[in-house]
């Protein structure tokens, strides 16, 4: 009988030991790792941002949007709409939790644009009807050489060089002999039709990528006829060289800083020709910011000593060759900048 009881006791102790080991293994902490957070702001001024997060060993994600709002889900995907007007930067923090409740966090800064800075769209062209550009909004610069840039095209007002189709404006450079030039193109201007001081400009466009092309979205001071260039000031919201298709330049020109001595910066994007990107200017008495897809890559401290405190008008053009465009490719026949819209907010 004693032997039997001893055997039972040994079996009981073995079960107890195994149970303890199993419990210990079950309770081992699962640790999440490699948390990555991505933010994709909309470019239409709506303030919507798509967030995604991934982490090893994570089963739940909490997004804190830096506004007092937060959400938790199991997918790692979240959509949030910011509502404060203008361009603002928010610190968004994501917490990833494992099945045992262990958490790790990561924060990202995201710049968000909500249209209207002061809430009002003051001028726009959506290019929604096929045909020619609206003559109440756009005029043309006509001539050759690029007015000092050594460009190769002759700017015309021909429907072959500037036209509306499928909801877009096309500014097209063409290889053809015309008035002594080997190329034609268009340079559209709002001079004497629309000008403004301060606010935000958004231009959504696809760019040409052929070597020798030089598209630009830019502005000149409305007093250019009275004071000349560079005294009038120049704001280049976007310039690009076809032989560097994804490199975007933003530059200011003014007395002491003109030609190759302009003040600015550059950024690199992807698919400049295949995908619409939004090229923007945020302009106030204190600062001038140039952005691509709502990401500022150049900021300038505005002040009373520079000519950026007066009315400016808009310009859209595609040049060929010249001081920035470089050598035109031997196989070039034509190329266009496609513009979805131009919008000005104040």
Descriptive report:
The chain has three helices and 25 strands. Strand 21 (277-283) and strand 22 (287-292) form a beta hairpin. With 346 residues, the chain is mainly beta. It has two domains: 33-114, Immunoglobulin-like, CATH 2.60.40.10; 121-345, Jelly Rolls, CATH 2.60.120. The protein has helices at 2-26, 224-227, 322-325; strands spanning 33-41, 48-56, 60-64, 70-73, 77-81, 86-97, 103-114, 121-125, 139-140, 143-144, 153-155, 162-165, 168-178, 181-185, 187-189, 199-206, 213-221, 234-241, 244-253, 263-268, 277-283, 287-292, 295-301, 312-320, 334-345. Strands 8, 10, 11, 12, 13, 14, 16, 21, 22, 23 and 25 form an eleven-stranded mixed sheet that branches. Residues 1-6 and 15-26 have low confidence and may be disordered.
Low-confidence blocks of residues: 1-6, 15-26
Total domain modules: 2
In CATH terms, what is the fold-level topology of the largest domain?
Jelly Rolls
Tell me about the largest β-sheet: 11 strands, mixed
Output the structural class: mainly beta
CATH architecture of the largest domain: Sandwich
Itemize the secondary structure elements and their pairings.
Layout: H1 2-26, E1 33-41, E2 48-56, E3 60-64, E4 70-73, E5 77-81, E6 86-97, E7 103-114, E8 121-125, E9 139-140, E10 143-144, E11 153-155, E12 162-165, E13 168-178, E14 181-185, E15 187-189, E16 199-206, E17 213-221, H2 224-227, E18 234-241, E19 244-253, E20 263-268, E21 277-283, E22 287-292, E23 295-301, E24 312-320, H3 322-325, E25 334-345
């Amino acid at each position: 009988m004693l032997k039997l009881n001893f055997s039972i006791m040994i079996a009981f102790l073995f079960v107890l030991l195994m149970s303890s080991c199993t419990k210990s293994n079950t309770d081992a902490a699962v640790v999440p790792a490699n948390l990555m957070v991505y933010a994709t702001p909309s470019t239409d001024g709506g303030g919507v941002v798509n967030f995604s997060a991934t982490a090893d060993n994570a089963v739940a994600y909490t997004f804190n949007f830096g506004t007092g709002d937060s959400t938790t889900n199991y997918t790692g995907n979240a959509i949030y709409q910011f509502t404060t007007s203008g361009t603002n930067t928010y610190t968004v923090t994501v917490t990833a939790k494992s099945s045992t409740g262990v958490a790790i966090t990561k924060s990202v800064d995201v710049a968000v644009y909500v249209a209207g800075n002061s809430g009002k769209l003051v001028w726009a062209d959506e290019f929604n009807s096929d045909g020619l550009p609206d003559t109440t909004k756009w005029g043309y610069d006509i001539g050759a050489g690029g007015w000092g840039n050594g460009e190769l095209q002759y700017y015309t007002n021909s429907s072959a060089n500037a036209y509306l189709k499928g909801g877009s404006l096309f500014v097209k450079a063409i290889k053809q002999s015309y008035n002594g030039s080997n190329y034609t193109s268009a340079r559209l201007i709002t001079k004497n039709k629309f000008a403004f001081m301060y606010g935000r400009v958004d231009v959504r466009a696809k760019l040409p990528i052929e070597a020798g092309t030089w598209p630009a979205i830019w502005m000149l001071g409305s007093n250019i006829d009275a004071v000349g260039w560079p005294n009038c000031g120049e704001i280049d919201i976007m310039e690009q060289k076809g032989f560097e298709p994804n490199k975007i330049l933003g530059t200011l020109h003014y007395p002491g800083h003109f030609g190759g001595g302009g003040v600015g910066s550059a950024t690199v994007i992807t698919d400049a020709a295949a995908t619409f990107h939004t090229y923007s200017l945020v302009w106030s008495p204190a600062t001038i910011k140039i952005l691509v897809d709502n990401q500022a890559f150049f900021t300038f401290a505005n002040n009373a000593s520079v000519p950026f405190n007066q009315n400016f008008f808009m310009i859209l053009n595609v040049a060929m060759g010249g001081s920035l465009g470089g050598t035109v490719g031997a196989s070039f026949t034509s190329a266009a900048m496609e513009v979805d819209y131009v919008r000005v907010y104040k």
